[in-house]
Design goal:
This protein is an alpha/beta fold. It is built from 17 helices and 13 strands. It folds into 3 domains: 133 residues, no CATH class; 192 residues, 3-Layer(aba) Sandwich (Rossmann fold), CATH 3.40.50.410; 38 residues, no CATH class.
Length: 389
């Protein structure tokens, strides 16, 4: 270790108030990564004016620190042993200890997306006696999102069914009325003044050949808390429908296939390991291996696009996927009350490839899904949330 590296390490240990002294001793300034480390540590060990708001995308909530991005930065910058130590100090010093140790406090908290994101990131630190309360709190958030999305998502998928495929299985909601009427015109009853159908045709919602495949590739880095909540509920709703086959992949620098957890959105949410680095290209490569019928596959990349791996490979793989016939859509991270949060340069490169790349308000996800499955234009949605070029 060089003298400059030693001085930088001591500067990080002693804090920003010692910067002038180290400069006087010939110490150079901190690198960009070291400045991020300095901010992450100052949020816990700094003076009374320091707060979690020093991290990118962070701020203060009405009742608790908004620390999701801080936790993500922490996990990306330090080894797991140091992360665990600093997280425990954060719980002790920043008022989260009582929240995590007292289940009744969680029971009385109003549902809040930011708090839910924080709980998911701290789930490994939640003591056993509070875990069930934390799950119930997350479930209340899930139920709210479910009320927003469930019926509209189901209607969107139903409306986008393949109108050419029919099934012998009766289901009133799946009757193909135009087709049935056309093929029963000869059965018009003059006395009843109506058609008495000899046979009724139904749309086939269960045929594996005609089913759409929906792949959700979800970034689980620290800034993704709200997007993960909405994406998980959306995934579980889709997974419960026979008209589509849904796969859910989570990634940071590692990849986790969470599809088996789609039966329960709370279980799915607790399956995410929020925070850490990001290798988007690696995850897209994995998802390419899940695609069997490109022309009937809808691929969502849900990310802030802050690529820590190979950005050129990320762009190349998205282009390959699109060229194979897959419908590719990139949904940018949503944070801080609905504001898009993303790497602008990468987003612009993707948009330039004629791949829809924009932030979508949660309540418009059903409209997005229906149009995508029907192959319709997304222009008006893109105008609202697409990065400026």
């Amino acid at each position: 270790m060089t003298q400059q590296e030693q001085m930088a390490r001591w500067r990080l240990i002693l804090g920003s108030e010692t910067q002038e002294s180290f400069t006087a001793m010939g110490g150079g300034g901190l690198s960009q990564e070291e400045l991020l480390m300095d901010g992450a540590l100052a949020a816990i060990y700094g003076g009374p004016d320091e707060s979690f708001s020093s991290g990118r995308g962070a701020g203060k909530g009405p009742s608790s620190p908004r620390i999701s991005q801080w936790l993500g930065d922490l996990r990306a910058l330090f080894d797991p042993e140091i992360v665990a130590l600093v997280q425990n100090d954060a719980i002790e010093r920043k008022g989260l200890k009582q929240l995590l140790l007292e289940p009744e406090l969680l029971e009385n908290l109003e549902p809040d997306l930011n708090m839910a994101s924080t709980l998911l990131m701290l789930k490994d630190q939640i003591p056993k006696k509070s875990k069930e309360s934390a799950r119930r709190y997350i479930k209340r958030i899930v139920e709210q999102i479910n009320k927003l999305l469930d019926s509209d998502l189901r209607r969107a998928v139903t409306a986008a069914l393949n109108r050419r495929a029919h099934s012998p299985l009766p289901s009133a909601s799946a009757i193909d009325f135009p087709y049935t009427i056309r093929h029963n015109l000869r059965n018009y009853n003059k006395e009843l003044k109506t058609i008495v159908p000899e046979r009724v045709w139904f749309f086939d919602r269960s045929s594996r050949v005609n089913r759409w495949n929906v792949v959700l590739d979800i970034d689980q880095s620290g800034s993704m808390g709200q997007s993960i909540l909405y994406s998980s509920v959306m995934a579980c709703i889709l997974a419960s429908m026979s008209a589509v086959e849904t796969k859910v992949v989570a990634f940071d620098t590692q990849i986790m296939d969470l599809t088996p957890l789609c039966a329960d959105p709370v279980d799915l949410l607790f399956g995410f390991q929020m925070g850490g680095g990001t290798d988007i290209a690696k995850s897209i490569a994995y998802c390419q291996g899940l695609i069997e019928t490109p022309a009937r596959t809808l691929f969502f990349l849900i990310s802030d696009l802050d690529e820590g791996g190979n950005r050129a490979a990320l762009l190349r793989r998205l282009e390959e996927m699109k060229a194979s016939g897959v419908t590719v859509i990139v949904l940018l991270a949503i944070a801080d009350g609905g504001r898009p949060y993303y790497d602008a340069q990468t987003a612009q490169r993707i948009a330039a490839m004629d791949i829809p790349c924009f932030a979508c308000a949660p309540e418009k996800l059903p409209v997005l899904l229906e149009r995508a499955l029907k192959g319709m234009s997304l222009d008006d949605l893109i105008k609202e949330g697409r990065p400026k070029q």
